[in-house]
Amino acid sequence: MEKNKNSDEDGNDIKIDNSNEKIKNPWMLVSIVLGIALAISLVFVFRGGMTGNVISENEAGKSLVSYLNAQTGGGVEYISSKDIGNLYETTVSYQGQNIPVYITKDGEYFVQGAVSINGNAIANPNIQAPAELPKSDKPVVELYVFTYCPYGTQSEKGIIPAVKLLGNKIDFKIRQIGAMHGEHEKIEAQRQLCINKLYPAKYLDYTLAFALSSEIGNCNGDATCAGPKIDALYNQFGIDKTKIDSCMKTDGVTLYATEESNSQAKGVSGSPTLMINGADAQSGRDSTSYLKTICSTFNTEPAECSQTLSSTSPSAGFGSGTGSASSAA
Q1: Structure letter (DSSP) for residue 17
Q2: Are 233 and 197 in a shared domain?
Q3: How many Cα atoms within 13 Å fall on the side-chain side of residue 274?
Q4: Which of 94, 224, 234, 325 has the fewest CB atoms within 10 Å, i.e. the most exposed one?
Q5: Residue 15 near residue 178 (C-beta atoms within 8 A)
Q6: Which pLDDT tens digit goes with each residue over 20-52?
Q7: According to the model, what pLDDT value does residue 162 have?
């Protein structure tokens, strides 16, 4: 059945397959449970917080996110908080989903039954830390993206410095999901696949420079505008435009179709999606977080894992700016 293309309210790029609607993300179940618990049992219970000490919604929300990260092993990011009367509703981002969660106004209790952030549980939460990622001597790291997805380019800007540091100690691939922003996204995917085929040593340099180019981003996919800027990247990295154009004509469609089929077979629909040793992985979008996540999957960590990279999250979209964690998909 044909896949419908859509995006979530935060601009997350996703593909929705109506022929096989399964909830693969446990957090979606968590949010449903939270909503039911809120509606049934907590309408009048927490007025003014359980202790009577009311703090701001932002302060309570950030405290809740710290608690959730401790429970899940990381990857929960703060989006916003609002006062809904008896509780604060905090929106967090996790595994490509924006999820509403709830906290008492004193900032002490995560509302699902109620669980004390300070460790005094009134009821057990249904949040569990994700299973430990499989380890190997040479981790296989795959980053699935749409080439023009703002969060895809954000993740590329964050992960490539970590990948270049680790070098051949990992097996890294940027995998193409397909195209949902237009024909220009498919063309760029084919271009990058051909660069990777013909100039593998220059592929990451090109891809990073592409993501860092606010000028290319400002073209909004217009070929007349973007063409000269892409040609400039070819010249910068010693890539023969004629060879790439020829590859795109002869091999581009096949390379692209193979990637699209792979993402469908893996059930990947969100950009970005990180997989390590065949398992879904969560990570912050800064280079330090990516390095830490990847290094956790070595049987024996190499010396590079102790080196320091940037802990600042890149901005979503094209360009070299920085962004807060809340910008992540």
Answers
A1: -
A2: yes
A3: 29
A4: 224
A5: yes
A6: 444 345 444 444 444 444 443 443 344 444 455
A7: 98
Half-sphere exposure of 134 (CA within 13 A, CB side): 12
Number of residues in the chain:
329
Mean pLDDT, range 57-72, rounded to an integer:
77
| Average pLDDT for 285-310 | 96
Task: Assess if residue 11 is contained within a domain.
Answer: no
In terms of DSSP bridges, do strands 109-110 and 115-116 run parallel, antiparallel, or are they unpaired? antiparallel
* 38 and 178 within one domain: no
What range defines the domain where residue 216 resides? 140-327
Average pLDDT over residues 123-135: 56
Kindly list the distances between the CA atom of residue 325 and the CA atoms of 50, 77, 284, in Å, as whole numbers in the listed order.
Answer: 30, 6, 8
The radius of gyration of the chain from alpha carbons, rounded to an integer in Å, stands at 22
Average model confidence (pLDDT) across the chain: 80
Cis peptide before 302 (omega within 30 of 0): no
Helix %, strand %, coil % of the chain (to 5): 45, 20, 40
Question: What is the per-residue DSSP string for 156-220?
Answer: HHHHHHHHHHHGGGSEEEEEE---SS-HHHHHHHHHHHHHHHH-HHHHHHHHHHHHH-HHHHHTT
Residue labelled with tokens 């569990």: 128
Residue 193 burial (CB count, 10 A): 23
Q: Which two tokens stand for residue 130?
A: 């994700």
Q: How large a percentage of the chain has pLDDT more than 90? A: 55
Do 207 and 320 lie in one domain? The reply is yes
Question: If pLDDT is split at 50, 70 and 90, which confidence band does 255 have?
Answer: very high
Amino acid identity, position 120: N
pTM: 0.64
The whole-number average pLDDT for the span 243-254 is 97
CA 51/CA 66 separation, integer angstroms: 20
Q: What is the CATH number of the domain that holds 292?
A: 3.40.30.10
**Distance, CA of 153 to CA of 185 (rounded, Å):** 12
